[in-house]
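Researcher: Please predict.
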Amino acid sequence: RMNLEAAKAIELYRDATVPKKSGGKQVKTTQQNPRFLHQILESNLASSEKTAERMGQEAFSIIAAGGETVARTLTTMTYYLITNPPILAKLRRELQSAQPDPLTPLPFQELEHLPWLSAIIKESMRLWGVMASRSPLVSPTPLQYEDWVIPAGTPIGMTMMNVLHNPTLYPSPQTFDPSRWIDLGPDSPENQNFVCYGKGSRMCLGMNLAQTELYLAAAAVFRCFDLELYDTVRVRDVESTRDCFTGEASKGSRGVRVRVTGEPEQ
């Protein structure tokens, strides 16, 4: 639940932006390009759906699902590329060939066709595991699982990490190995079980936005800068040890920190 200060802040925001009435007519207070919370507050939803608690939940969802997921994937990627120079060198060669001028970025539509960049993004997501929490579903009918019958109405779920770190699907699952994704077809077991965005009707709504952010950010950073790690330890700062909806590093972690040491060759 939200703390008192957060609740007060959202109440003030709601009171300042909720539509006012003038002469019996509703008057909008927002400018062009209304923000996400404005859309809810100015909608025809019931007042009970516009409480500070509801707004706080929506804001948290945006931060956790729309920001932390991409940030943690890029953090994981940065650590494993710096600690695997041969893989980083392959990525650099690919980016230098595709983008000769580091200050002229490529659009996503071109970046997504670069095989090593694509493989590195996918492997970073797989190794991190993205969402640590279970996503339970409830079946209205009994389910048969091997010798067991699961009664109707039983919540069933598993964390994505159980699939993404399955050694049958991904040999040496704790090893950062982007080459496992090279030349795989869309129907391969590895791709069919790549569940970082979920599957089916409840898969991630922001998948395309997240993919675009990952490609643009990774290409920009590793095409333009040489980096080295600073006071970063894998067990403390990289590996997921806490379930905070997303998998998070230990409480003592200060994050993956780096120094910029120069710029790659043109």
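Model: The beta strands are 20-22, 25-27, 137-138, 143-145, 148-150, 155-156, 226-229, 242-244, 246-248, 258-262.
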